[in-house]
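Lab notebook, design round three. We kept the backbone fixed and only want residue identities now. Task for the bench partner: fill in a sequence for the structure below.
Input structure tokens:
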């Protein structure tokens, strides 16, 4: 019986992919999103599309992940794919950096949360981004200073330091988290950096991350530094002005910061 079903599936699939001989009814992509062969709803199909939309910055200004995608996003983050996607980004960043003649003024900008340090442990306890952002609970987690390094980012960091590139951490974390962030970075294996820029929430009150980060990168360039690379998990790390010679987007399907 299973063999018969499989044969029918192959024949139907082949027909839909190739259409008739003369092009009539030609259907390369069967438009049956969200349904499987038997017409069953498959949330994973639309969740994959949603994640692609997020990473490509087509889906913007979202407040939380779709309810039906909690399982999919959790599996993505805790399984191999998140690590693999991160590795691809970091590898490309290193291959690029390796081609450059590094000078004393060359810097690489790293965002911190979900770029340098991982808050996955916190988000795993909060539905991987399905729960609305809870500032109090998240700050309690940050203040523990126990966030581990993202392994692929730490590898990239070490390779860049090895090439003689100076590191600047540019984060939306506020001034009152500077001490715990410094300790957390060192504990996670980030042993050296040129600057750690935290957000002066008085100076940047009410501004977006794009505005804040652009202004701080501009200051760096005015000080004579050359931003050869810039890596972050949010598009707001990479858009705006003074973005650097190349930008690298790490995956993050858990939250959106504008
Ligand atoms: Mg981040």
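Proposed sequence:
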């Amino acid at each position: 019986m299973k063999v018969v079903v499989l044969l029918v599936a192959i024949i139907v699939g082949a027909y839909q992919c190739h259409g008739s001989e003369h092009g009539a009814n030609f259907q390369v992509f069967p438009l049956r999103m969200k349904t499987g062969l038997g017409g069953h709803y498959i949330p994973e199909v639309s969740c994959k599309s949603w994640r692609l939309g997020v990473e490509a910055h087509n889906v913007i200004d979202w407040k939380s992940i779709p309810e039906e995608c909690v399982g999919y996003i959790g599996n993505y983050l805790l399984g191999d794919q998140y690590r693999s996607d991160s590795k691809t980004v970091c590898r490309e960043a290193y291959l690029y950096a390796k081609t450059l003649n590094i000078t004393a003024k060359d810097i690489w900008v790293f965002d911190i949360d979900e770029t340098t340090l991982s808050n996955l442990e916190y988000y795993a306890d909060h539905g991987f981004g399905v729960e609305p952002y809870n500032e109090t609970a998240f700050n309690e987690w940050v203040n523990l200073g126990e966030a581990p390094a993202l392994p692929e980012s730490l590898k990239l960091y070490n390779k860049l330091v090895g090439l003689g590139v100076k590191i600047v951490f540019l984060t939306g974390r506020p001034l009152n988290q500077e001490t715990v962030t410094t300790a957390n970075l060192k504990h996670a294996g980030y042993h050296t950096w040129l600057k750690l820029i935290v957000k002066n929430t008085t100076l940047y009150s009410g501004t977006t991350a794009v505005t804040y980060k652009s202004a701080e990168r501009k200051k760096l360039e005015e000080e004579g530094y050359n931003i050869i690379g810039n890596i972050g998990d949010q598009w707001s790390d990479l858009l705006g002005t003074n973005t650097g010679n190349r930008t690298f987007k790490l995956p993050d399907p858990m939250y959106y910061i504008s």
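Keep this in mind before ordering anything: The first helix runs from residue 2 to 18.
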